[in-house]
Design brief:
The structure is a homodimer.
Chain A (H helix, E strand, L loop, with lengths): L1 H12 L2 E5 L4 H12 L5 E4 L6 H13 L6 E4 L2 E4 L1 H9 L3 H7 L4
Parallel strand pairs in A: 1-2
Antiparallel strand pairs in A: 1-3, 3-4
Helix pairs in contact in A: 2-4
The complex binds glutathione (2 copies) and FE2/S2 (inorganic) cluster.
């Protein structure tokens, strides 16, 4: 669909993309972690897009199997949610992924 | 209001009360922590009450200044959210509060 093409284009053109909701603390946690690492992620607040928000969430679920927020992509690759991203960071595996994607 | 009386009655009659939302990870975290400590909190899922949910949230905001979830009460006393409850636990201050309220 056109929406799916847009999402794929967004993921291809931006080193780090976070699909988020403004009032969700897990979304805030992952945005704060990335900013602390000197990364300027493209943040898409799904609750500020009207009817498109849930539609994009459906596309993300089709593409990744994940309907929840936050939904994090680095270098076009699906990383997962907040706990996944934090786990990678603690293992020292997040920063190499960010460097590889020219995000830092 | 009648609703405010109901909320006050709930807080007076139950040693531990958590106002939550089913899909919120911070709410899940605090419920999991309390259950791990052997406590059976009274959990009120605000997103399952229809129009009463937001009304109760307004009452809680009037009573505590906090409109967010989770909203935790022990022995009728307002504790705060997830980060507040976890901080108390880490300082060893949560379990004495739970014992005092006959929650354990
Ligand atoms: N472990 C996941 C949890 C994700 C999650 O459950 N997110 C919630 C908000 S905190 C959500 O999107 N809930 C909506 C739903 O469950 O439909 C993560 O760390 O991101
Ligand atoms: N630090 C607070 C954060 C609470 C918070 O921001 N909760 C969010 C959901 S995770 C909320 O209720 N958002 C609704 C709103 O901001 O209106 C806690 O630990 O409980
Ligand atoms: S909505 Fe509460 S942590 Fe996401």
């Amino acid at each position: 669909s056109r929406l799916e093409d847009n999402v794929k284009k967004t993921l291809a053109e931006n080193p780090v993309v976070v699909y988020s909701k403004t009032w969700c603390s897990y979304s805030s946690e992952v945005k704060t972690l990335l900013k602390r690492l000197g990364v300027e992620p493209l943040v898409i607040e799904l609750d500020e897009l009207g009817p498109q928000g849930p539609q994009i969430q459906k596309v993300l679920e089709r593409l990744t199997g994940q309907h929840t927020v936050p939904n994090v992509f680095i270098g076009g690759k699906h990383i997962g949610g907040c706990t996944d991203t934090v786990k990678l960071y603690r293992k020292g595996e997040l920063e190499p992924l960010l460097s590889e994607a020219n995000a830092k």
